[in-house]
Amino acid sequence: MTDLLEVTDAGLYCPAGGFWVDPWRSVPRAVITHAHADHARSGCDRYLCAAPGKLVMRSRLGGRVPIDTLRYGESTTFNGVKVSLHPAGHVLGSAQVRVEHGGIVWVVSGDYKTAPDPTCAPFEPVRCDVFVTESTFGLPIYRWPAPETIAAEINAWWRANQAEGKTSVLLAYALGKAQRLAAMVDPSIGPIHGHGAVMKLVRAYRDSGVRLPPIDAVPARAKRVGQGRALVIAPPSVAGSGWLRVFGEVAVAQASGWMTVRGIRRRRGFEKGFVVSDHADFPGLVAAVAATGARRVLVTHGSSEAFARFLRGRGLEADVLATRFTGEQPDRDDAGDAGDDDGVGSEAEPDVPGPDMSRPDDGAAVDPADRGELS
Amino acid sequence: MKRFTDLYGRLDATTKTSEKEALLVDYFRAVPPGDGAVAVRILSGGRQSRAVSTALLRTWAAEAAGIPDWLVEECYAHVGDLAETLALVLPEPVASPPTAAAMEWGGLADCLRGTVDSIRAEGDEGQKRAMVEEIWRGLGPAERIVWHKFLTGGLRVGVSRTLVARALAVVAGVEPAEMLERLIAARLERAEDYLELLDPTANTTSRRPYPFFLAAPLDEPPAGLGDVAGWQVEWKWDGVRAQLVCRGGETALWTRGEEIVGERFPEVIAAAERLPDGTVLDGELLVVRGGRQLGFDQLSKRLHRKAPTRRDTAELPVAFLAYDLLEAGGVDLRAEPLGQRRRQLETLAAALGWPVFEPPLVGDPLPSPARDSVPFLLSPLLAPADWDAVVTARTTARDRGVEGVMLKRRDGAYGVGRTRGEWWKWKIEPLEIDAVLIGAVAGHGRRAGLHTDYTFGVWHDGRLVKIANAYSGLNDEELTEIDRIIRATTLEKKGPWRGVTATLVMELAFERVAESTRHASGVAVRFPRIVRWRKDKSPAEAGTLADLRALVAPVDPVSLLPPSTHLPPTPRPISRPSERQTRLWEEGE
Fold first, then answer.
1. Using CB atoms, which residue from B65, B444, B466 is nearest to A367?
2. Residue A340: what are its φ and ψ, rounded to 5°?
3. Which of A263, A359, A362 is opposite residue B445, by nearest beta carbon?
4. Do the Cβ atoms of B160 and A374 come within 8 Å?
5. Residue A52: pLDDT over 90
6. Distance CA A80, CA A70 (A)
7. A20 and A32 Cβ atoms separated by less than 8 Å
8. Cα separation of B374 and B268, whole Å?
9. pLDDT at A93 exceeding the cut of 70
10. B586 pLDDT higher than 60
11. Most buried of A38, A93, B323, B344 (most Cβ within 10 A)?
12. Angle between helices B191-198 and B33-43 (to 10 degrees)
């Protein structure tokens, strides 16, 4: 029996239905899990997405593209293949794509998280035969703290910065994470400002009916903003740029699942990191896979090989599915959207210079960082 | 203990040296002396023997976390720090267990004694495991990291010994250099040791070395340095920089990494008995046999032998080549001009019959009968008429087995650290080859999760043979880009190692190429590092093994020993070199 979905040059394709899921080339019919750039690319003839995400998708793809929508749980058919969308809990409008044909059910997770998020519908497990899962954080070192704990940490950091007269700059992906953070923090502490890329999506979220605290844009010719009291939410690409100048003295922190690992945070030059992710942590991935009841699991972007092997060890038929979805590289933002967030931190610290070891071919390189840093 | 864990977290959270220093000062002021002694020892890089093998810890942690062993290894490759990896995979701590109270406690010294030392002393593996698991249940991830580092014997927090000394100097109200000297020799076990370290009036006589004065690299030809007559010109030796300290009837041999290595070089220590008390020499450890210097690889064999046999000392005799006199008759000479110190050194050498060691050119007949096993040598002065003569001398450096020339200001004092303009090292231009990246493993520390430790090959018979591992020389942006390419072109994985399709060409620089039977390629390159990423070159345009062989240093006949006297090769270490080893391998100036 052939697979219901297969990877082609253009992306994940359903031959029976004649549609693609999150294609990376222009195709006639694209079913989109969510609006992040590695999943929703422009240039397709028709798009289908979950209704709550339509405005976000519009803000990304432009005003004229034909976008069809389905409510969560509602289904349609393409060539007799039944397609429905179910909440993925990743960002506003994110969906898992359920595909049913000839009594076989496949579910493509897109990106998902199992942790609660006040700005989008919670992840909903869908029973299926084959589950296509992401594995961005598919290693057991990734276990997210409770969102309340992180919110309290961010609030405390914001207050402490205020006490020192510093503006708090929180770097986060512009679509999803930024709005979620704004909804997480305590807005009574001080004013919240958003970078232009963030504000565009704040508007799309509000227009979609998501309640967010007051967030102000930064005026174009502003000389001084926030008076050392504000929380600024901006994409990571602003780190070290002139854009931050209007806020005076700043304390910069990154909000990302990668901040779990100290070495990654240090490399990016941030003194503070908050562990907040819109992806599932390892226990979340394991639980989600189990809840689908799927016997076969295909693992896409992330620690896909390790996670597939782990699942095989638990008796599942699991393989890596090679896609072009990103989200793997810790030096990009979680969502892998190069449109807003290029890797940052390159100027934060110079590389450790010079030759290091005197022994030829020792078979194990020495980490410059292990050598003590200064003299 | 809590105080120390907090300090660790805060040091880890900042990249600014001034903030780190301030944190250390606050900590050292507040800490009880008994804990202070332990903290200084740990922070300044002192190692203790591990209480549990890391292999056991990995296995126990995997079982506690309910994951297979291989997945712990995957995580380690990703995190780049074993203590942190285990801290993160272990299950959440159980709420308010009795041990949590115990960990708040007592303090650092008590914690080490109460948990780490008792686990180390426990002979029964099952008991050890029960003790470790009980502590695990009581600690959160941040505390676990620090505790694992104690348990496994090493804790690095991105502070150097110099920085620790600077902070302690602030607390004690003494000069940083003075504190560094105290720190190098301090015992740091009990409260009294800490109080003595911080005593502003403490008597400092001991077998401490002086802080090493370092040379800055000279990038331009030296013509701009003024009259050549104002400079003492010497060879830059390819050995290990060391100070020999004779005080109070005892002798200590210190490397620049501030390790005491006397027991490894008994021939030097024995011969030092003839030195007058109150003498400190600065110089270089070299293997010299038959009037010729053998390569650094031979010296590193001796460095690895903590208790050398007579055969070792006979086959690889080590000499201390003196080039400066820092103390004579118990008087600190460092403020004297170099010219004056040199004259005193020459007088001492003449009195003790130390020969001047001119590094012969490869293939030249030796000017005098080969002298074996002379444990003290005097560094010769070059007497160049002008800078051109220095330039010419430097061109012979590679054939002499030295790294270039040193230029030291004759009227200069012996300073501290690296002061530009006093001492220059003018190394020979490195050798270079374009090599193809054939594999990589993820880096550690700040490079965690990025594939930054590369394996390079050159062409031979239509395939790529491995010639070197290198990881330094690229900026973060390039490392990130290359990581992406490595992931996209991975052909095979062996544990954390990825073999890749040949697409990336890098220009590598190295100091020397030598024949080697230990490497599949038949050659060993010394000091390989990346000069630049050759995006303009395709792998087919990279260098060949024949190109590399053409650069092999001429073989010195003396190093061709009859097979029977060949020493067995040093076993290749399986793990990363420890910080201690790395320090030992650090080059002399």
1. B444
2. -105, -35
3. A263
4. yes
5. yes
6. 17
7. no
8. 9
9. yes
10. no
11. A93
12. 80
